[in-house]
Protein 1
Amino acid sequence: MAGPLPLGDPAPADGHLPADLPVDTSVPFSAYLHIPFCTVRCGYCDFNTYTATELRGAKQEDYASTLISEIALARRVLDDAGALRPMDTVFFGGGTPTLLPAGDLARMLDAATSAFGLVDGAEVTVEANPDTVTLEVARTLASAGVTRMSVGMQSAVPHVLAALDRTHRPENVRTAVTAAKDAGLAVSVDLIYGAPGESLDDWEASLDAALALEPDHISAYALIIEDGTKLARQIRRGEVPTPDDDLQADMYELADARLGAGGFEWYEVRNWARVPAQRSRHNLAYWRGSDWWGFGPGAHSHVAGLRWWNVKHPAAYAQRLAASESPAAATERPDAESQTLERILLLSRIREGIAVDEVPPANRSRVAGLMADGLVDPVAAVQGRIQLTLRGRLLADAVVRALTD
């Protein structure tokens, strides 16, 4: 399970937003629906997910109805605050959303659409484990209004999947992608690199396999060792090696080269799309600081600078809603300095970058040094924008420190 929730101020039991919240309904609004169930826990994962043996006091078959109760609460809260507006994007994440019957996902989406509405051309994404996707599932989701499926491929190499504790069969990735395409869905595939024992050749094989699937979008994430995970314990005991930073950098450069040659263009440090229309609009909403409501245990929300997060366990989440109470555990309202830091952190990672004018005045002189070090594009910087080069993407954290310290 994920680590402890952050500290914050007490959340109101009725979920109501502060009366002085500066709501701007022209800001796009998104919904994230967290499905916290997995068949097994992957050794690297610290997400708020639960296997069957960890679900004391909660049942998967009741989950859709419970989450729909939070949707009804959100409708009342946003309406009372004058913050109600249609959704630009919807994202079912987890966990493994496709562990639930497709009809349950459809029911939740219908409830959210009825409560908030959808803008024309809205993006609706469902994350999926390759072993849980059939043509029937894909067609049910498409009929319900889903437009996009994100398939957890991670690797095409069996020993790498084993190192990550992934249980799906590599050949089922193509089955899932084909089913999604046949149902008319756009397709993204997720990859992870830097697993124990993974070589550069292994990674190249996975990239080639992903490209052969002809998806619309590819995400590639460096393996990060999170405290409290099985993999962290294995490393601490000396059973597997710590990921090699230099090898991971080589893997990133290889990914950028192979994906670029395959017709993909990077638009965020870890994400590539064939055309701008296939970029993940939901993730861009996070990076650009839009508003969103996160439904489900442990989910985080953001409206007009106010943040809150729900209780973690599905049983506690269900108990709150059964008592007609908000499932929010705590809330926070970051000050202007914190908001500026976060905006630089997020916007600097996307292709369009951030305006130099948004950097604190005392740090703007550092842009010249970042140009000299080959971390930001000099032409864009002269035109007033900070945009990362390939080297800058590899050292994105260093760029953020230079702009914010």
Protein 2
Amino acid sequence: MTQINTWQQILDPSHRADPYPLYTELRKTPVVRVEDGTYVVSTYREIVALLHDPRLSSDMRNVPELAADAPAQAAEDGTPTLPPTFIQTDPPEHDRLRRLLTRNFGPPHRPDRIVGMIPQLFEIVTNEIDGFARKERSGTIRVDIVDDFAYPFPVTVICQLLGVPREDEPRFQAMSDAVVKAADPTTGGIAERRRRRAKAIADLGQYFAQLLDARHGQRGDDLLSGLLSGDGDEAPMSSEEILSNAALLLVAGHETTVNLITNGMLTLLRHPEVLDRLRRRDEPDLAARVVEELLRYEPPVQFLSNNRNTLDDIEIAGTTIPEGSPVTLVLASGSRDPDFVPDPDRFDPDREHNEHLGFGGGIHYCFGAPLARPETQIALTELAHRLKNPRLVADPPPYRASPSLRGPRHLLVEIDGVNPAHPDQAPYSPGHTPP
């Protein structure tokens, strides 16, 4: 089997339930050029090296094919295009945008933002699980962990954080789906998917423009209001920059967390001994260790698809990646690289050292990680504690189409009832040092 064929199998939906044996095959050649000219990198050390290499750019306008396509993209349907989001730029532009976003999101300027949301997270999770009891039929309750819990929870959270009305979810969901689909390399060439993504971000930007206009200058304590106001020594973002980055945060703020929570519950049901330990609540740091191991073992983001390119020739693992080449970093493969982590295909929350790639690395380390961690820790701890005798209806469950944002489309679970909410809040640990 050639490595190109291996990559095609990874993209094939029939392998979505378990791509990890294919990653083992792919790692035999750490860097491989696939049919569309993309260089796919699959081993831990090489991925980490590239994540920290300034010659690897996140601005896809550096790719000649895409730079030539930009005028067509702008004129495709008349929709105003927005500037690139901060994850699509390089320093110093990236640093400025990320700094302004962070000023309104978390440490060091808002160290209380996420911690202050913890009671809200518990309240949302409690209400969602309480609702399971209404599904009882003949003494058994069947729930879909995705539709009944893992999706509504982070959507509610990101809406509160941004200041978006929760009832607008049906309006922005189709646009969010379009952004996710554009990241799927099976849905078209790089230039075509870039056009679709820009259109979806622009549509979301128009939604945010209408939302901000409706406020008539009334601002609150949400992240959008903070971006509009600006603070500190730097000038605030432009209106267009606010719209594009708000659109990104709305999508990224729930899509990956849905998969992380769902992958987590599926993994715990497959490892009942860990589920039972989490249920007992007598290991204060277990939830944090479970989530870190999930980010290594079953990450929601499997690879960064065509959002990196080379600014110069880069020699790595005996291969020269030419200047102007798109690069895909297979994070999920790197996190299971046996040359870096022992016994990589075993789920083990007791690992002493777990420097996974679940949140990427380098200057583009996941912006939302400080929120995703407590969200998932709280969600899994409460599910473990409150669900009576949970068991899978189907294993494997049906999966979403996307090979890069990987997770079950549905996760049907039967339970015998719902325990009352625990009077004490579950432990959580928002901090972690990225690789």
